[in-house]
Give the backbone structure.
Amino acid sequence: MDFRALIVIMMSAVLVNNYVLRQFLGVCPFLGVSRDFKSSVGMGFAVIFVMMLATTVTWPIQIFLLNTSGLEFMQTVVFILVIATLVQLVEVVLKRYFPALFASLGVYLPLMTTNCAVLAVTISNINQGYTYAEALVHALGAGLGFLLAMVLFTGVRTQTESADPPEAFKGIPITLISAALLSLAFFGFDGVIENIFR
Amino acid sequence: MDTIFVAIISFSAIGLICAVTITVASKLMFVKVDFNVEKVRKCLPGANCGACGYSSCDIYAEVVSKGEVATNLCLPAGEAGFEAINEILGVKTSEGLAKMTAVVQCLGDTNTVKDKMKYVGISTCFAAKQLFGGQESCTFGCLGLGDCVAVCPSDAICVKGRLARIHPDRCSGCGVCAKVCPTNVIAIEPEPLHVAVRCKSKERGKAVRQKCSRGCIGCKKCETVCPVKTIQVVDSLAVIDHTLCYGCKECVDVCIVKCIL
């Protein structure tokens, strides 16, 4: 297995193709749960967990079930169904066996059942033609990228909340503007990873 | 036509498998829910004010239902809520609800206290406090920019003439305002509150007089006149111990600057 290729996949998912800031997926929790540090970290770890889990299950389904029976066009609907079920199942299991973990993560899990970033990760795993290991690493990278974006944006947001913007910019507008600026900053990573590991 | 049948059948099969798994899992791993928690939660106001010492009403409902803590900790729920919780949990307690109220320990509005500058900036007490202690010359008093108004869950505070005023009937005594106030000018005192010193300035009498016409100058007249000796002047500021005060209001009459009300 090419270890370097895995690192490139992971780092590019974290920085260059950051799912929130470069591809604008999963923006809803990104704006909704980034008010305070604790909940944004909780959400970030929940996303990492669900992305990994979803990839673990959807990759074999696509390769061994859909591709072999010529049902590639059902990818989206099957993936949504499977991911939603998985998340619900995890919630039930956590509630029963790990109440402490459920208390800290449980609020964010239902938000993830139909999160577009999770679906996008699983679909792009297939589209990029990744192997199973590559797909898992890509999912981990995407989750870490989400966590990074959340934590960074929480820092920005605590500043904008205590600032005094013009009346028209108060609340959501200033939040969206600062999100756009953060996103622009991430465009600076263009081509960095590919050249480092060349 | 074949493909569509295969698609429908396989999709239904996947759906069925998912449905069965979830159903079985939720039956196997059923967690017993204490229905009292929900009932108790409905008696609580849901302001998540933190007066009970827990971060949210949900958590307090949970610990109360387990019988771990006293039922009288929720002040905003009031007497009615306290009794309702006792009824749900079947608790008999001789303790009543310890009712508290917030007191702004300052009378420095625009007429009484002199300004040392004109503050034009972020309109919160927190921000104003950081710039030389705010607009007013007295740094102990109320800044009157309404940080407390913004957080009050029962809408009991208003600011008039740059001084926060508390509506005694509406105040539930939860203490959120006292926590958020950057000058710590709001005190949470037990009801019934007969008198309170409405000043926090620890400066000497002359300095206080130069800044504010209603500040405590530490003349000790109230200390002498109090029949139960519950007032003490510490750092040229009168302090009342409310446990002994029975409300004779001698101190109110004798106070020169009328800062005991």
DSSP finds ten helices and six strands in chain B. Chain B touches chain A at residues 3, 6-7, 10-11, 14-15, 18, 21-22, 25-26, 29-31, 121-124, 126-127 (CB under 8 Å).
